Structure prediction request, 71 residues.
Amino acid sequence: MIVKVTWRDAYSDLKGCKKHPKSKYTRHTVGYLVKRGPVWTVVASDWDPNSKTYKVLGHIPTGCITRLRTL
Prediction:
């Protein structure tokens, strides 16, 4: 499933995204949804059908996600 994730970059704000819900560090990530867990949501930019593996994984703090939309 390909998704677009809108999220607040917690690493750009040392106090974390939950304490600053209107953070100016908004990010958009588009890719294959690998996992959505309680701590991390993992999005990959590549799928290699030969090795059947995802490449270039991005780990987004689940608590920082403001929107996740299927494309």
Remarks:
- The radius of gyration is 13 Å.
- The beta strands are 2-8, 26-36, 40-48, 53-61, 65-70.
- Residues 2-70 form one domain.
